[in-house]
Design goal:
By secondary structure, this protein is low in regular secondary structure. It is built from two helices and two strands, in the order H-E-E-H.
Length: about 100
Protein backbone atom coordinates (compact mmCIF):
# COMPACT_ATOMS: atom_id res chain seq x y z
CA UNK A 1 0.00 0.00 0.00
CA UNK A 2 1.29 3.48 -0.89
CA UNK A 3 2.06 5.90 1.91
CA UNK A 4 -0.38 8.79 2.28
CA UNK A 5 0.97 12.17 1.26
CA UNK A 6 -0.03 15.16 3.33
CA UNK A 7 -1.22 18.18 1.40
CA UNK A 8 0.98 21.23 1.73
CA UNK A 9 -0.55 24.20 3.47
CA UNK A 10 -1.25 26.86 0.89
CA UNK A 11 0.38 30.20 1.43
CA UNK A 12 -2.15 32.96 2.09
CA UNK A 13 -2.10 35.46 -0.69
CA UNK A 14 -2.72 39.11 0.11
CA UNK A 15 -6.10 40.40 -0.95
CA UNK A 16 -5.67 42.63 -4.00
CA UNK A 17 -6.52 46.26 -3.30
CA UNK A 18 -9.34 47.88 -5.21
CA UNK A 19 -8.02 50.63 -7.44
CA UNK A 20 -9.36 54.11 -6.85
CA UNK A 21 -10.98 55.67 -9.90
CA UNK A 22 -8.66 58.08 -11.63
CA UNK A 23 -9.25 61.79 -11.21
CA UNK A 24 -10.80 63.50 -14.20
CA UNK A 25 -8.20 66.25 -14.30
CA UNK A 26 -8.14 68.01 -17.64
CA UNK A 27 -11.22 66.21 -18.85
CA UNK A 28 -14.29 68.18 -19.82
CA UNK A 29 -17.49 67.18 -18.04
CA UNK A 30 -20.62 67.38 -20.12
CA UNK A 31 -24.35 67.30 -19.50
CA UNK A 32 -27.39 67.13 -21.75
CA UNK A 33 -30.30 69.57 -21.54
CA UNK A 34 -33.50 67.67 -20.70
CA UNK A 35 -36.90 68.16 -22.32
CA UNK A 36 -37.82 70.21 -19.23
CA UNK A 37 -34.83 72.55 -19.81
CA UNK A 38 -32.94 71.08 -16.84
CA UNK A 39 -29.21 70.43 -16.59
CA UNK A 40 -27.42 68.01 -14.31
CA UNK A 41 -24.14 69.40 -13.03
CA UNK A 42 -21.49 66.64 -12.91
CA UNK A 43 -20.52 65.65 -9.37
CA UNK A 44 -16.83 66.49 -9.84
CA UNK A 45 -17.81 70.07 -10.75
CA UNK A 46 -20.17 70.30 -7.76
CA UNK A 47 -17.43 69.18 -5.40
CA UNK A 48 -14.86 71.51 -6.93
CA UNK A 49 -16.94 74.66 -6.43
CA UNK A 50 -18.63 73.50 -3.21
CA UNK A 51 -22.22 73.49 -4.43
CA UNK A 52 -24.86 71.59 -2.47
CA UNK A 53 -28.56 70.88 -2.93
CA UNK A 54 -30.59 74.08 -2.51
CA UNK A 55 -27.77 76.50 -3.39
CA UNK A 56 -28.70 79.35 -5.72
CA UNK A 57 -26.85 79.96 -8.97
CA UNK A 58 -27.24 82.70 -11.57
CA UNK A 59 -26.81 82.18 -15.31
CA UNK A 60 -25.36 85.12 -17.26
CA UNK A 61 -24.55 85.37 -20.98
CA UNK A 62 -21.32 87.36 -21.37
CA UNK A 63 -20.30 89.59 -24.32
CA UNK A 64 -18.61 86.67 -26.09
CA UNK A 65 -21.86 84.67 -25.99
CA UNK A 66 -20.72 82.17 -23.34
CA UNK A 67 -22.92 81.18 -20.43
CA UNK A 68 -21.37 81.94 -17.05
CA UNK A 69 -22.68 80.38 -13.86
CA UNK A 70 -22.22 82.47 -10.74
CA UNK A 71 -22.51 80.67 -7.42
CA UNK A 72 -24.60 82.19 -4.64
CA UNK A 73 -25.81 85.07 -6.78
CA UNK A 74 -29.12 86.74 -5.98
CA UNK A 75 -31.28 88.82 -8.28
CA UNK A 76 -31.10 91.76 -5.88
CA UNK A 77 -28.22 91.88 -3.36
CA UNK A 78 -30.18 94.33 -1.16
CA UNK A 79 -32.54 91.44 -0.35
CA UNK A 80 -29.65 89.79 1.52
CA UNK A 81 -30.06 92.49 4.20
CA UNK A 82 -33.68 91.61 5.00
CA UNK A 83 -33.85 90.58 8.64
CA UNK A 84 -30.15 91.31 9.23
CA UNK A 85 -30.81 93.93 11.94
CA UNK A 86 -33.66 92.75 14.17
CA UNK A 87 -34.80 95.20 16.84
CA UNK A 88 -33.20 98.30 15.32
CA UNK A 89 -36.51 100.05 14.60
CA UNK A 90 -38.60 98.68 17.47
CA UNK A 91 -39.07 102.14 19.05
CA UNK A 92 -39.34 104.02 15.74
CA UNK A 93 -42.51 106.12 15.41
CA UNK A 94 -43.29 106.49 11.71
CA UNK A 95 -46.13 108.98 12.19
CA UNK A 96 -43.93 111.27 14.30
CA UNK A 97 -41.16 111.10 11.71
CA UNK A 98 -43.56 111.98 8.85
CA UNK A 99 -44.95 114.92 10.80
CA UNK A 100 -41.42 116.25 11.27
CA UNK A 101 -40.94 116.36 7.48
CA UNK A 102 -43.76 118.87 6.97
Amino acid sequence: MAPKVKAKKSAKRPVPKVKQPAQRAGRTSTSRLSSKNQLTVPVDILRRVGLEAGDEVEFVVNDAGFIQIQVGAHANPILNLVGAFPGVFDEFDQEKERAAWD
